[in-house]
Amino acid sequence: MDMIFEELDYRPTPIGALSVRRRTEPLLKVEVIEIKLGDEFLMSSLFTDSEVALARQGLAAFAGQARNVVVGGLGLGYTARTVLEDSGVQSLLVVDFLEAVIDWHQSGLLPLGPTLTGDPRCRFVHGDFFAMARSETGFDPGQAARRFDAILVDIDHSPEALLDPRSTSFYQPDGLRALSRHLVPGGVFGLWSNEPPDEAFITRLREVFADAWGEEVTFYNPLQDRPFTQSVYLARTAG
Fold first, then answer.
1. Are residues 129 and 196 in the same domain?
2. pTM higher than the cut 0.90
3. Which domain holds residue 15?
4. Which of 50, 53, 77, 79 shows the shortest CA–CA distance to 229?
5. Which residue stretches of 122-163 are H helix?
6. How confident is the model over 47-57, as pLDDT tens digits?
7. What is the dihedral of CA 234, 113, 33, 39, to 10 degrees?
8. CB atoms near residue 45 (< 10 Å)
9. Are 96 and 32 in the same domain?
């Protein structure tokens, strides 16, 4: 009998129980890898369009040539892999608060792990992205106050639907202003959201950045037999 469900690993974390599982989707008859935090789905290999769009649109919005990138939130690795597909990317730091997710990639438990760990441009950083964004030292433990061409974030479900209260201040003007210090002139901030673009959040972005906008990412959801819309927010510092 074909595999229906298998829990690959389970770990307690400071923000709840984390599990990764592999299952067969009966309607589509395909294998799906999922990460859950408690009862919440963090990532599914069945729907990756907007994670890919975050990387592509974020890099496209940067006008410079050399690209040094931070991705906040490793997940199943689709945003990070898409960043590395750009030959102009010189370095990628992937910051994740959940050590188990980094372990799953480094051990090869997750399918994209070998691709990410095998690329010399890519380095995982275990840490609190939101605390690093607020700090003066920033995201690179080996180079304090290093600035980046693009910082792309896929952690919370949206600016209003948070996985943990520690990120609340990040989405306010002061938090966004602190993040902007870690970008070069003309650098790009990109944010994934499970919801369509929210004009109120775009207004907040425009209080801090020279330019800001939201992009809809619509894809067909075969489980619901209808289109589904998520979004990518993009903002650019003065260049």
1. yes
2. yes
3. 5-42
4. 50
5. 129-134
6. 999 999 999 99
7. -70
8. 20
9. no
